[in-house]
């Protein structure tokens, strides 16, 4: 298992980790298989989405805020219930196909670590399985 450290700088942000995931796959020497990504945090997530227009990431955060506003009368004493909801909505796992030593992504796709309760030092685990 490979563990990446991700340092967020804001309470909510999408951090492009595509290059780090690509490098982890190359370092593993796997030509063909799958890469399983896992975020071991309850207020963060991992997603694959457009990496060409930064307005898409802005709009995703805006949409998530509308679905789970920060101050909505939640009971959880830590004051971060919205972050737990957003993490559950996007999910803590992604599976990537690996072909020719590279993750199989669409032209406009990038891999994003999703922070919803930062800034924090976070981790992303990667397990690469060879076919």
TrEMBL record:
Top-rank lineage group of the source organism: Bacteria
Gene3D superfamilies (alphabetical): YjbQ-like
Sections of the chain in a coiled coil: none
PANTHER family from the UniProt entry: UNCHARACTERIZED PROTEIN YJBQ-RELATED, UPF0047 PROTEIN C4A8.02C
Family from the record: Belongs to the UPF0047 family.
NCBIfam families: TIGR00149_YjbQ
Protein name: YjbQ family protein
Species of provenance: Syntrophotalea carbinolica (strain DSM 2380 / NBRC 103641 / GraBd1) (Pelobacter carbinolicus)
């Amino acid at each position: 298992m490979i563990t990446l450290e991700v340092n967020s700088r804001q309470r909510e942000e999408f951090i492009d980790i595509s290059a780090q995931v690509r490098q982890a796959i190359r370092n593993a020497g796997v030509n063909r298989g799958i890469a399983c990504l896992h975020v071991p945090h309850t207020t963060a997530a991992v997603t694959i989405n457009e990496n060409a227009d930064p307005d898409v990431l802005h709009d995703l955060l805006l949409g998530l805020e509308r679905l789970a506003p920060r101050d909505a009368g939640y009971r959880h004493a830590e004051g971060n219930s919205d972050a737990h909801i957003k993490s559950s909505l996007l999910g803590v796992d992604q599976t990537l196909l690996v072909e020719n030593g590279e993750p199989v992504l669409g032209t406009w796709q990038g891999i994003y670590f999703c922070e919803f309760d930062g800034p924090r030092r976070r981790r992303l685990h990667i397990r690469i399985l060879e076919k």
